[in-house]
Design brief:
There is one protein chain. The protein starts with a helix and ends with a strand. Helix 2 (12-33) crosses helix 3 (35-44), helix 5 packs across helix 6 (139-151) and helix 11 (340-348) packs across helix 12 (386-400). It has two domains: 1-328, Rossmann fold (3-Layer(aba) Sandwich), CATH 3.40.50.12780; 331-426, GMP Synthetase, Chain A, domain 3 (2-Layer Sandwich), CATH 3.30.300.30. It is an alpha/beta fold. It has helices spanning 5-8, 12-33, 35-44, 65-70, 104-120, 139-151, 163-173, 182-194, 199-202, 217-227, 340-348, 386-400; strands at residues 84-89, 99-103, 128-131, 154-156, 177-180, 207-211, 230-237, 242-248, 255-257, 262-267, 281-287, 298-304, 306-307, 319-320, 331-333, 336-338, 353-362, 366-373, 405-409, 424-426. The strands form five sheets. Strands 4-3-5-6-7-8-9-14-13 form a nine-stranded mixed β-sheet, sandwiched between helices. It has a four-stranded mixed β-sheet with strand order 19-18-17-20. It binds adenosine-5'-diphosphate (ADP) and zinc ion (ZN). Zinc ion is lined by residues 249, 251, 256, 311, 313, 315. Zinc ion binds at residues 249, 251, 256, 311, 313, 315.
Length: 430
Amino acid sequence: MFWDQPVETLSRAELERLQLQRLQDTVRRVASRVPFYQQKFAELNVKPENIRSLADLRKLPFTTNTDLRANYPAGLLAVLYDETLRLHTSSGTTGKPKALFFSRRDVDNAAELCARSFVATGVTNKDVFQNMMTYGMFTGALVTHYGAEKVGCLVIPAGPGNSERQILLMQDFGTTVIHITPSYGLYLATFLEKHGVNPRRDLKLRKAFVGAEPYTEETRLKIEQGLGLDVYNSYGLSEMNGPGVAFECEQKYGMHLWEDHFLMEIIDPQTGEPLPNGERGELVMTTLCREAMPLLRYRTRDMTSIIPIPCPCGRTHRRLNRITGRSDDMLILRGVNIYPQQIERVLMATPGIGRNYLIQLEGLDEMTVKVELAEAGFDGQVGHLLDLQTRLAENLRAEILVKPRVQLLPPGELPISEGKAKRVIDNRKL
Ligand code: ADP
Ligand code: ZN
């Protein structure tokens, strides 16, 4: 199923022609209206007319997080203040929030890309969409809310938390699609189990859009089994409209990045140089349609790779592999580079292990992985689980090359998160 088939299936040549034209427009606009880019262009000695092909993108400056903060609140605006329609901020997982302005056209485009994404997963106007993202300054809820309305779904703006009420809403209004973070998804799965709700028998759920933070295939499986539905990976960031930047189609294998709206590059985060097709690196994006706040070569710090083969669904926009974390998420423990996702993968694949965990770094250079036991089969005794503890520590060592301390906890011991989960606490005295 397609929302906008002609655009979603453009040939590479047509797509690139459109991209170049939109890139040139964007560059001209920021060069005439945004002092930050005027100064950068002067430093690099580039002019809008130097951008003659997509390869010329590399002549343009990067834009970073720091640039966004330095230009807070409205330094990067490319329209008049009166022409802005909506303000969002990033949720501030790392550092202070950033202000993101939308014009009327930006608000509409953001909803359009969400509609396109939702329909690609098989959602129709008959679906009932329960949105469990946080409403407010965060783009996650509002942007998808408008997207689902555009498709014609009945939209329930539930927000996160209060799981009992979530289930009531699902039952009373026949919810078929939910939008949820992976951490709350895992929690909700446990909650259903604990309260004897069998989703396949008692609910009508069929799909979940899961994103806003990194998660693994193992987590996808746990949410799918626990909630009785299909999970589609959803990627976005406030700097690029929020959700609907890249989304999985019905194949559930890699997220189509909407290339008529965003130019993507995968670079080596250390050197800034482009990487060969298919290699894993930092995703860099240039907005092609944003009016209020266009951004050139924005360093997302998100680590991913392009899937170098076409998708059987017929969409020509290239797919991204799962985001495995941010380039600055990486932990260095005793000289070894570790991504929290590697730890999650081992935990989620170990029988008897539950869904909530926390990685604590402390002392000189020690790691403790605290993890809850699975609800099923738990008899209130932690002592005789020594065996499981040893096995888990060994499996973790095989994956991350250093052996952490493992602490098994009864179900429900660790704090639960409804928004973005904080999985790593670093209290090391290095
Ligand atoms: P913040 O930067 O404050 O977290 P955002 O709300 O803009 O604010 O969050 C966007 C970030 O969330 C992305 O850059 C990425 O790191 C993460 N993210 C969003 N969706 C996914 C996803 N499907 N998989 C992994 N990470 C994701
Ligand atoms: Zn596809």
